[in-house]
């Protein structure tokens, strides 16, 4: 996809603020710091449209970015922040579950996993929940530049095994630093939205 225009639309705190134009939505989920904002910026060739390292505590906002008149990226709040209270976590769960289960324009969830480490318990629980509810997933292994090329396959295998990943889910190796995986990820997205 050629990105001609990319625009921050809204930090939505509830369904009444979601866009009503029915453009396909590509959601991003992952632990805080996994690289969601950096991925959005890389995908749209902007340094700083999506805020990187956003503070924890914003547990109930969906950040919408419109790309051309083709789609939205929807940045879900990161999970797995130790500082966040149990009540906050529960709120996070309800809010995100609502979105993922009932948001009709949501066509694909990019489940982002740091290539360097085996998926955490939170990652595993998230993946299992997504599969259980039939959410279409693309696994994105982030920060690939931080692992030597010769070890990529080993790390990918650990991710797949730990998540018990479905063989039919695409997995894209990605680096926001080098741009690796960008074209491949665009083609997964395009295919999914029938672009
Ligand atoms: P978010 O909390 O998931 O939105 O994560 P950010 O995009 O803010 O990234 C968290 C930190 O990881 C920042 O310091 C980024 O610069 C860094 N980071 C993100 N993606 C990459 C990557 O692909 N390679 C490297 N080396 N660092 C990255």
How would you summarize this macromolecular structure in one to three sentences?
With 195 residues, this protein is an alpha/beta fold. 31% of the residues lie in helices and 22% in strands. It has helices at residues 36-43, 86-102, 121-132, 152-163, 182-193; strands at residues 6-12, 25-30, 62-67, 71-75, 106-114, 137-142, 171-173.
Strand order of the largest sheet: 1-3-4-2-5-6-7
Give the ligands present: guanosine-5'-diphosphate
* Helix residue percentage: 25-40%
Distance between the termini: 9 Å
Shape: globular
Characterize the biggest β-sheet: 7 strands, mixed
Which percent range describes the beta-strand content?
15-25%
Derived structural class: alpha/beta
Brief descriptors of the model:
31% helix, cell cycle, 5 helices, globular, nucleotide-binding, Rossmann fold, seven-stranded mixed beta sheet, 195 residues, alpha/beta, binds guanosine-5'-diphosphate
């Amino acid at each position: 996809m050629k990105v001609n225009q990319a625009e921050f639309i809204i930090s939505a705190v509830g369904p009444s603020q979601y866009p009503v134009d029915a453009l396909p939505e590509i959601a991003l989920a992952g632990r805080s710091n996994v690289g969601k904002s950096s991925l959005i910026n890389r995908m749209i060739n902007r340094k700083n449209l999506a805020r990187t390292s956003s503070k924890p505590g914003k547990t109930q906002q969906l950040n919408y970015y419109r790309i051309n008149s083709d789609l939205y990226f929807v940045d879900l709040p990161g999970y797995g922040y130790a500082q966040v209270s149990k009540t906050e976590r529960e709120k996070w769960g309800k809010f995100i579950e609502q979105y993922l289960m009932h948001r009709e324009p949501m066509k694909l969830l990019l489940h982002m996993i740091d290539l360097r480490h085996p998926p955490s318990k939170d990652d595993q629980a998230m993946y299992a929940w997504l599969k259980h509810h039939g959410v279409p997933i693309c696994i994105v292994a982030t920060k690939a530049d931080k692992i030597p090329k010769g070890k990529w396959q080993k790390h990918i295998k650990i991710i797949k095994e730990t998540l018990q990943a479905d063989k039919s889910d695409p997995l894209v190796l990605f680096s926001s630093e080098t741009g690796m995986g960008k074209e491949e990820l665009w083609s997964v997205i395009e295919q999914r939205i029938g672009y």
